[in-house]
Give the backbone structure.
Amino acid sequence: MATKEFPLVPKDVGRIETRFRRIITKIPVPESIPILEQMRTAEPRSMGGQPSVIWDSGEGALVRDPYGNQWIDFSSGVLVTSAGHAHPRIVEAIQEIARNHLYHAYCFPTEIRARLVTKIKSLLPPHLSRIFLLTTGSEAVECAIKLARTMGLKIGGPEKRVIVSFENAFHGRTMGAQLAGGIPSLKAWLGNETADFVQVPYPDGFRCPDMSFEVFTRTLSDKGINPSRVCGVISETYQGCNAFLIPADYARALRKWCDEHRAVLILDEIQAGFGRTGRMFGFEHLGIVPDLAVFGKGISGGMPLSAVVGTEELMNLYGPGEMTSTHSANPICAAAALTNIEIILEENLVENARRLQPVLLESGRKMIEISQGRIGRADGVGLVMALQFVEPQTTNPDPETAWEVVRMSVERGVMLFAPVGVGGSTIKINPPLLITEEQLREGLSVVEEVVAEVCR
Ligand SMILES: Cc1ncc(COP(=O)(O)O)c(C=O)c1O
C-alpha cells in the first residue's frame, strides 16, 4: 500500500490526445491544488497516497477530471466498477429506486432484496444456498470469521477457535479482518489478540517456492497448532498482492484437510468474484466449493454492498434478528448490484475478461523482459494482473520503482492506483471488465513505455 504522497507541485507533462486519453494541463492541475489541500488538511493522512487527480466523471473504461483531462482506467476504482463508470442502466436503476421507491429499509423486507438474493443464489453452486447482504468487504470477512468461530464452538468447544490464513493476505482493515490478514505491519496494534490467528505461507511459487500442501501442515505443526483446534481457514482465491490463484491441487488438498478436521473453508472472493478472473466466481478455477465465500467490490458495480454466502448449516447458526446490519441490502445498493450482475451476464463481461487475459499477460511478459530484472513476477488471470517490483535477482520489494511507474503512467493518461502488496511494490492492472481490446492495448503500451524508461 502507498506510504507516500504524490506531489502537489504542478508539472508540465506534455500534451497527449488520442481517442481514449487526453492530458491537456499540467499534472497536478493548478486549479485542483486548493481542493487537494482541503482534503490533506481535513482528513487523516491515511486517506492520501493516491495520484493527485480529482476524479469527476467517468464513462465505461474512461475517467475524467473537471479540467478536460481523460484517462484509460486501469483501476476500476479499486476493482469495483466492473461494468464501467456511469453505466446508463446502473444510473437508471439507482435513480428509479430512489425516485419511485425508497433509499433505506433496514431489514424490513423489500422486493429488491428478494430479487437480488434470488439472482445471486441462481449463480452459485447449490451447496452455497444462503446469501447474507452487508455493506463492506471487511464486514463480510468479519461475519465469515464469526460464523467459523461459532461453528467451532458448537462442534468442538471453546478450544476450537483458531483461524488459519495466509502470509501477505489482505482481508480488510477492521479488527477481525486484520487479524486474519497476513501483513505484519498492519497487525502491530493487535497485541495478544493475534494468538488465535495463524498465518501459513501462500503457495505463490515466488516468495514461497515450495507450492506443496505439506508447507501448510508443516507450518501449523511448527507453530504448535493441533489441527483439531482449527475452526476455519480463510484465503483469497487469488492473493490481491500477486494475482496468483491458489493452485488447484493445493486447493483440493486444503478442501480435504478442512473436511477431515471439521474446519470451515472460507474463500475471500472480494476481488475475484463476479467475473474478474474470467469465470463468474474465482473458485471455479480451483475445482472446489468453499463452505463460505465473501464478496464485495465488483458485486455491485460501485455502490457499497457485500455478501457472505454459505451452507444452510453455517448461515443459519444465528436466529432471527441476531445477525443483521443497519445497511444490509440498502435498496439503492441492491438495485445497483442486481443491474450490475445483469449487465455482467447480458454483456458477456466474464467472457470479455477471459478473452482479454492473453493480451494482459503477454504485456506482463514483455514488461518483465524490458524491466532489467526489476519486475520479478507478472501474474494474472482474467482482467487482473500484478506486477511485482523487486531489487533485481531478489524478492526484496522495490516500492520506489513501482511508485515512479504509477506516477508517470498517470501523467500519460493511464489511471492506476498507488502500489499495493508486499512493501508497497506491486502495481495492479485491473480495468473495468467491459474495456475494449483497443483501450486495453493502448493503456498497456503506455505502461510498457514507462517501465522501459524507468528501468533503463
Ligand atoms: C481480498 C480483499 N478482501 C477484503 C477487502 C476489504 O474490503 P473493504 O475495503 O470493502 O472493506 C479487500 C479490499 O481491498 C480485498 O481486496
